[in-house]
Amino acid sequence: MTSTSSETINGREWEMGTYQRGLADNCFEEGQYDAAIAILEQLRSSTYKPSIPHIRQLLFIALHPSCGPSEDTKSKSNLESPSKLSKQRPFSSIPSMTVVASRRLLMSFITTNTPEALGRALPHYQDHIGSKPIADDESTDSIIAKQAMCIKEAKNCWNILEEGFTLRTKQNISSPNAKGKKRRDIIAGGDLMNEDRFTGDHTVVGDDAWPILDWIITLFECDERLAQEQGSSKQSRLLLQQMPPSRNGGPRWETSAPLDVIFHCLQQSNLRRYRMGSRLLTLLINLSSTLSLDPHMFIASLYRRLSASGFDGFALLMSSLPDTLNMHKFKITLCQKIISDAMTNDPPMTMNPRPKPQARAQPRAVRVPRDSQQIQHEEPNLNRPPDTIPLENKYPLPSSSDIIRLLGARMPSSSSPATRLILLRAKFELIFSYAFMQAQANRSGEVNSEWNRSRSNGSLRKLLEDTFGNIDEDSSTYHEVLLQSIF
Known about the structure:
Elements: H1 6-10, E1 14-15, H2 18-29, H3 33-43, E2 48-49, H4 52-62, H5 71-76, H6 82-88, H7 96-112, H8 115-119, H9 143-147, H10 149-153, H11 165-172, H12 180-187, H13 196-199, H14 210-229, H15 237-240, H16 256-266, H17 271-288, H18 295-308, H19 314-320, H20 325-344, H21 400-408, H22 417-443, H23 449-456, H24 459-468, H25 473-486
């Protein structure tokens, strides 16, 4: 994984000069994309930001299929002038080497420039309702610059990843019948942004968009890491901008679009693509530990997705998350809900058919979830001076008695074998993460006498034996791991 250089972080980035931009613009206008990419590579520097239009044009090229030009186009390239050829050549004939070069250059920019300098080229929501978008110097002299405007018009970065995004743009952007709002919707891919998004009637990440998804996630990871190094909370502001702001000015809460991408990644057999899903989920979990994203709504949305999928791949997902405090807090909260709901539902954890999309009411300023005892966070005091507002939500750990009660809860007799496996894994993740958090608390001098007493008097050891001991191979493995980590 690449990381932003210290020179970029500590120095100042200036806008690239008109002359330097013009060198690349001339090549783009003539259809000389390889030359334009080579010039941008030579101009790449931690001192100067790449222009927004250039990043968008690189993204537009990178989203194309990696297939070479036709034989007719190759033969014409020796006879026609570059300007005439660029007007005749279809975008579907962009050579694979050009597509790969644009993807490589985008990744290279992450090593020299700040996430903010690159992320401003992505479509995003404004910081609050009613705010005006930031104007940028958009060049429309070349065909590809006009085509790349579709990225600017998209609602968010997730839309540009959809199957056929660039193809829809090329087919419809020049249509004389598409005017006004209808034209803008076509440019933004609006024809596939309604009910299809939730029902899965289209691919949320096209076959040729995976490298760009990797680039976007890497950009968010660098942004998160830079924020942490600068003493801020562990969150990516660029990722936050990919979720619409709440009308009341409170934490953002709408995470359906990134969750669509995450669960599509988790369905992939390709390990690299699967890993993108867990990386993006990690970023969202870190964001939900701050005041910027409502943790109640995030947990509820994630739980609904897991339930709708029958918790397929739940164990693999839990094991793919990094070993950090935020991840263990998240696991405790999620597994509490899984176990509690399974014990109260009859039959438990039934896989319901996917509901039809509905208009959802926005949460009120103060929203108390049904499981309010499981998820708590401190509401911001708007009268408090800005420098005293906490950067992170408070996730108080549940009491040891609550954890022991859930661990010892008997599974309903109507539970299927698959449900039992899921609940067994949820109990393992719950107690393992809780033990990890208690170990961290002991090191910092915050002793939990109730937890330590259950460890020393043998009651916890016996409970682990009753829950995991000698049931099957998986449970025996859980039992051994827990004994080694707790005692």
